[in-house]
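so the lab meeting is tmrw and i was supposed to have these ready like two days ago... anyway. pasting both below. for each one the top line is the aa sequence and the line under it is the structure tokens. i havent really looked at them closely yet so no promises
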Amino acid sequence: MKKKSLFLQLTIAATMLFTTVASAAKVANLKDIPIGGSGQMEMVGTIEPTLLSVTMPTFVPFNISNSIPTQNKVLSPKINVKNNSNVPVQIDVTYTKVDISKLKNATWSNDGTVTKNQIAIGLKQEVGDEVPEDLSHARWLAANQKQDMNLMVLDANQDGAMYVVGTLGANVSESATFNVTPTFVVSRTSMP
């Protein structure tokens, strides 16, 4: 009986020892700061990075001709855009490199209004499922200069589409090629 009692006392003592240590650990993390005093508290946070990912083609061929009967003189394929991010994004054009050196006597128009020797190219967000016939709501690409032009806002995991649109003056050659290379920037936005 004495052995049982001694064993029970040792067990109770060991339990109290570990309980006391555990309680001491909790108390050690608390600190009273007197009124008018100061103290420090360590705060630990976790940063959850948000990856912005948008899928769109890197090459879009298009044809431009005065023989197209609509206001929009460009035929382009649909440019599908997909926001793969879990947050809303906006897509902007910040610069457009334009090389029209092969178009003899032609100049560029930054606003879509053309004279006989000018050409203008822009982008237009899809409204229907066909190439746009008019130039309303087109966003015009400014040649070889900084530009801050918003093209579209896409909600999280949303699909969108746009088309190349444009017009040209009557004296612009239709038998030459030219290059238009816009720089797109994707950024997080709070606007859905």
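ok protien two:
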Amino acid sequence: MKKRLVVTIVLIALVATLLAGCAKKEVTLESFVKDNPSEEAALEELTANDPNASIEFEGNIMRIIYKVEDSTITKDILDPALEMMAATFNGIAQDLVKSTGIEGIQIEIVYKDAEGKDITSRVFE
């Protein structure tokens, strides 16, 4: 009887260890691009020709930050431009979901002034 109890405890410990090892790590866009440098490079190509643009990844958000040097460009000018680009950025987000299999990816566009303060931003899905 004791032998059977010991075997049962050992088997339970083994199963628990196996289940813990099989637990899936949550994959986010951020972890995906860290694990796939070529994918990160391809996404960064979106801003490669613009020295005032950069890309950051946080969780499932790809944040594209534009630094606006011209102080005459205001929120009133940028918001309608973002609205016109909605289909494009929504399409990029949807393409990323399809190509990575990661649900809930968002594209956030952020415009900052020369001092680094936010002018406006918008999230696309």
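from a quick look at the 2nd one: The two ends are 60 Å apart (CA to CA). DSSP finds five helices and four strands in the chain. will dig more after coffe
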